[in-house]
Design goal:
alpha/beta, single chain, 29% helix, Alpha-Beta Plaits, 233 residues, 2 domains, binds ribulose-5-phosphate, 6-stranded mixed sheet
């Protein structure tokens, strides 16, 4: 028996709850950031199994502490068995845009240490082409205006005309947990995500970008029909 789940948050919850069932007792679990990942963290805590969590942000660490999930630092483990995290867009071959919540750097560091990466989302985020959601790029604060001009140059080479926008919160530049700034780029359809990722990584001052390519092993997408669809790369 399935039910209609028209609200986006309900679909996020479905995906988060499904992902919590993939975790086995004794595992080291990467805990993603954002509202979908928060559903996963709550569902994981509700299972009551013994796990250790590696949080990808201060916000997720605070939630996990509230829920009595034991935490361990990323540099205190030799393996992360599974990481579950949200995304802003899921494209072909599970190419992702992440970083809407500003945690892309720590998220990517945790994902890259993980044996299995599970992305969870509501149905509206699965798209045939990436690029409707602004692509976040994390840069060091020192010299960031020059960095943004260099980003503009590589964007032009990738046929992207829109200039990067400095992310603000309450009128002030947004700072990541690592103290960096974020520029958001309205790319439009990204024809070649891999070429764009390489070009951005080559810019001095860029710490990381929100393109997660070849990292996700499976996507669990909560749908309006109350079902969770599995997507493989
Ligand atoms: C944070 C992220 C989030 O996973 C992404 O923004 C999705 O957020 P939400 O689950 O709240 O829609 O990448 O850096």
């Amino acid at each position: 028996m399935t039910s209609i789940v028209t609200d986006i948050d309900g679909q996020k919850r479905l995906a988060g709850e499904a992902a919590a069932l993939l975790v086995e007792p004794g595992q080291v679990v990467g805990l993603g950031t954002g509202s979908t990942a928060a559903h996963f963290v709550r569902a994981l805590a509700a299972r009551g199994i013994a796990v250790k969590g590696v949080p990808t942000s201060e916000a997720t660490a605070a939630l996990a502490r509230e829920l009595d999930i034991p935490l361990v630092g990323v540099d205190d483990v030799t393996r992360i068995d599974i990481t579950v995290d949200g995304a802003d867009e899921i494209g072909p071959e599970l190419a992702l845009i992440k970083g809407g919540g500003g945690a892309l750097l720590r998220e990517k560091l945790v994902w890259e240490l993980s044996r299995r990466c599970v992305v969870i989302a509501d149905a509206a985020k699965a798209l045939p082409v990436l690029g409707a959601f602004p692509l976040p790029v994390e840069v060091v604060a020192f010299g960031h205006k020059g960095t943004s001009r260099r980003i503009c140059d590589v964007l032009a080479d990738c046929d992207i005309a829109m200039p990067p926008r400095l992310r603000k919160r309450d009128g002030e530049p947004f700072r990541t947990d690592s103290g960096n700034l974020i520029y958001d780029i309205d790319c439009g359809e990204i024809a070649d995500p891999s070429a764009l990722a390489d070009a951005l990584k080559g810019v001095t001052g860029v710490v990381e970008h929100g393109l997660f390519l070849g990292l996700a092993d499976i996507a669990l997408v909560g749908g309006a029909d109350g079902r969770v669809t599995e997507i493989l790369p």
